[in-house]
Amino acid sequence: ALRLAGGRSRCEGRVELEQEGTWGTVCDDGWDIPDADVVCRQLGCGRAVRAPGGAAFGRGHGPILRDEVGCEGHERHLWECPAALEHDCSHKEDAGAVCSEHQEWRLSGGRDGCAGRVEGFFRGIWSTVCNSTWYELEAMVLCRTLGCGNALQRPSFGHTLPGKMVYLCGSLQPSLAQCLWAFNKSAPCYQSWAAGVICNGTGS
User: What range(s) does the SRCR domain occupy (predicted)?
Assistant: First the structure.
């Protein structure tokens, strides 16, 4: 099994492999975009945008299972790529990946990082979020994802960015990426305003 850990969505984080029931990490020696590409594709996360090393998503635990990974980029699984199984690494060299399907969020134009217009980052651009399906549940998921507590209000704003996202959550998910979502589809955003939220926490 394979996963990305420590990131803001399942498509960003420290590369972790499972071997014989134990999760371990990959050393960043020789780690580059073709290697991360294989990881992103294997996880259904699109293409690699970045291939950070140096434990960019925090230091992992357990064994270091691969070193000197040398994917060409077309492999279906990371374990098909040539790699050294012996290593001279520590967890401060854990490899990571940021994939094109990764999403992150911010609040802008408010009093701090926990209030304002909802903006989502996806496929390399920041977008506003349409308020057509922006209800209490969606606002709550976002406030918690950002570490901002609970949602107090949902003000509306004008759309100011080129892209538009729509989210619809059926339950209190760990992030908006786990809810139903759409990117740049005009119908759900027709005559909508940009969603906003004021959370009860305070952010930077």
Answer: 2-100, 105-200
Q: Do domains 2-99 and 103-199 have the same CATH topology?
A: yes
Q: Is the pTM of this model over 0.85?
A: no
Sequence letter at residue 189 = C
List the chain domain ranges: 2-99, 103-199
CATH superfamily of 103-199: SRCR-like domain (3.10.250.10)
- Cα 125 to chain centroid distance, Å, stands at 13
C-alpha distances in Å from residue 113, one per residue of 20, 67, 174: 42, 39, 19
* pLDDT tens digits for range 38-92: 999 999 999 998 999 999 999 999 999 999 999 999 999 999 999 998 888 999 9
| Angle, vertex CA 37, rays to CA 34 and CA 43, nearest 5 | 150
Write out the two tokens for 161: 């960015």
